[in-house]
């Protein structure tokens, strides 16, 4: 498979007071199109930083990030923002839904940045909600939905623009085990049946088991010998 994400000699340094802290150093990584990767590592290992760099939420201090042929490490802020809206769907631990909007309107939000008219935005949101099993819940606001249902709405919002890449940061971290399993099965289906490339940060080995492979980080570097191959599906 062709690499959708290709990372070479990636570094990220933050300034904390007078001290420079190198969070990532010399990371090389290829993620093939259609892959489902779990990023694991102890707190402070750099996994969320790496996720944010792949998703264009942050810029590296050095190195190269190519996503679907685009050198995102060379993009300016405005270019990166446009690239994200066209190419990446984000799923976060705490859903980040607008409490005053119903599920359908929440899912429509990314489409407001496009040239689609109101009728087409509504239709696309309905299709996305159907895909995550919430076709009948479009008129419900977040406080009328369970945690698992809210995360399904968040996933529908992430896929409504048909992005190339799904970025998931602890997507089951705030859910009970049954809801977590349902969300992970949904992500598997999006990967297996709809060809979505998924990169997921998780601290939960059971969640990582749903990915095709697991990549371990420690102290800002990939851990040699700890890139696990195809997990059972």
UniProtKB/TrEMBL annotation:
Keywords: ATP-binding, Nucleotide-binding, Transport
Keyword Transport in record: yes
Transmembrane parts of this sequence: none
InterPro entries cross-referenced by the UniProt entry: AAA+_ATPase, ABC_transporter-like_ATP-bd, ABC_transporter-like_CS, ABC_transpr_LolD-like, MacB-like_ATP-bd, P-loop_NTPase
Superkingdom of source: Bacteria
Keyword Transport: yes
Pfam (any one): ABC_tran
Record domain ABC transporter: where: 5-231
Molecular functions (GO terms): ATP binding
Name of the protein in its database record: ABC transporter ATP-binding protein
Species in which this protein is naturally found: Lysobacter hankyongensis
């Amino acid at each position: 498979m062709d690499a959708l994400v290709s990372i070479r000699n990636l570094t990220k340094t933050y300034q904390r007071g007078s001290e420079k802290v190198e969070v990532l150093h010399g990371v090389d990584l290829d993620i093939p199109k259609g892959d489902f990767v779990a990023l694991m590592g102890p707190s402070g290992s750099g996994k969320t930083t790496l996720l944010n760099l792949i998703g264009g939420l942050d810029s590296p201090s050095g190195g190269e990030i190519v996503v679907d042929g685009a050198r995102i490490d060379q993009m300016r802020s405005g270019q990166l923002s446009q690239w994200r809206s066209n190419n990446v769907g984000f799923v976060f631990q705490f859903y980040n839904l607008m409490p005053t909007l119903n599920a359908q309107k929440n899912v429509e939000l990314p489409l407001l940045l496009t040239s689609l008219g109101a009728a087409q935005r509504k239709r696309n949101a309905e299709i996305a909600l159907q895909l995550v099993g919430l076709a009948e819940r479009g008129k419900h606001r977040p406080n009328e939905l369970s945690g698992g249902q809210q995360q399904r709405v968040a996933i529908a919002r992430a896929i409504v623009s048909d992005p190339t890449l799904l970025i998931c940061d602890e997507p089951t971290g705030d859910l009970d085990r049954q809801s977590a399993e349902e969300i992970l099965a949904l992500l598997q289906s999006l990967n297996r049946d709809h060809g979505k490339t998924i990169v997921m940060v998780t601290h939960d080995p059971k969640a990582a088991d749903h990915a095709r492979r697991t990549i371990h980080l420690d102290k800002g570097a990939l851990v040699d010998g700890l890139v696990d191959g195809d997990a059972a599906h």
